[in-house]
Amino acid sequence: MTVLEIKTSLLDSCKVSVQKRFEKVNKTIADIVDALDGESKSSAGDKHETGRAMLQIDRENAGKQLQELENLDRLLPKIDIKTTTDYARLGSLVYTNNGNFFISISLGVVIVGKTTYYCVALQAPIGAQLSGKKKDDCFTFNGKEYKVTSVK
Predict the structure, then answer these.
(1) pLDDT digits (tens, 9 = 90+) for 76-118
(2) pTM for this structure?
(3) How many angstroms separate the CA atoms of 27 and 24, rounded?
């Protein structure tokens, strides 16, 4: 596979993951709204108020998750997979002696072909360590020594 094909596959995995998470959070919000409607028809006193309060907290948490997903959705089109530089940046593939990284969003492990890649955000601790690194640069993360073998 070419570098562009690998990056395209990884970016597609990121997009699919965000879409699935959107669907899950939207379903959660819909379920909470339904439950709130059911709670408003009840009038069991303190128990009723506690149930509504818990559902409101759940709804707020789901709203925060939705906001985070919207931020990721706005970031995905900004990931430039066509440009190759000699330093690690958003959209770079970074090969090290301890793993291969695609700087994009925090997704975790994605396998392309038979190769394992870690999709990481620039804001993630490992992403921050990788940012700006060039071939032969070294860094330590979680007590492990990393050496960049190539950036694509």
Answers:
(1) 999 999 998 999 999 999 999 999 999 999 999 999 999 999 9
(2) 0.85
(3) 5
**SS3 for the chain, per residue?**
CCHHHHHHHHHHHHHHHHHHHHHHHHHHHHHHHHHHHHHHHCCCCHHHHHHHHHHHHHHHHHHHHHHHHHHHHHHHHHCCCCCCCCECCCCCEEEECCEEEEEECCCEEEEECCEEEEEEECCCHHHHHHCCCECCCEEEECCEEEEEEEEC
From the list 64, 42, 66, 63, the residue with the least C-alpha distance to 52 is 42
